[in-house]
# Entry
Amino acid sequence: MRVLILSDIHANRTALEAVLHAAGQVDATWCLGDVVGYGPSPNECVALLKEQPNLVCLRGNHDAAAIGDLALDSFNPEARASLEWMRDLLDEATVKFLKSCPSHTSAEGFTLVHASPRQPMLEYLLDTHAAAENFDYFDTDHCFVGHTHVPVEFKMNPNTNRVSLHTLIPNTAYALKPRSIINPGSVGQPRDRDPRAAFAILDTGQGKWHHQRVEYDIPSVQKLMRAAHLPQRHVQRLETGW
Ligand code: ZN
# Structure
């Protein structure tokens, strides 16, 4: 089974289209949440996602806030401004879809969460200490997470139970062992100083997954964001990937 794993699209339709094109044919699509927030095209991103085969889609903190299920005061002022703009823009079909998405689930023997197994909506898994504690909160071999916008794999040594952090090389295949927590990075708002859209392709038959990056037309998205008067910092960070 070939699965496209996406996270943190953040209303960036151009990046999403580039990822779908680069991924090619897949048997299923798993989206780890934050479909909306920051970017200019939330409804278009949800509509495009819904067309994908065997879609599993989680609700991230931005999705929850955009539909009024999470208070806006947990966001910084710029993120809040973009969420307020988005709340008025979301159409009925988008709201209905986001309301139907769970914050965590499992598929084909993999745990899927937006933020962390311990706190599916809010915790940032950035270091081995937090990751090590989170291995106790899921019982499958592997867990896919998003939320930090940084592609990374945390591996647990089966002999010592020590957890190590591995940064990922773009367009490289990795074996699915030992036990791990994998973040495929962000489609629409990368924050690892690589502005290209990030995603993963999981091959369950081969026991492997690929970390992939693809370029997209960043200036055209920035133009849409400026026209919508979205925060300048969010416009700028698309081109630096930070
Ligand atoms: Zn996000």
Summary: The mean pLDDT is 96. Residues 2-240 form a domain with the Purple Acid Phosphatase; chain A, domain 2 fold (CATH 3.60.21.10). The helical segments are 13-23, 42-50, 61-66, 77-89, 92-100, 128-134, 218-227, 232-240. The chain has one domain: 2-240.
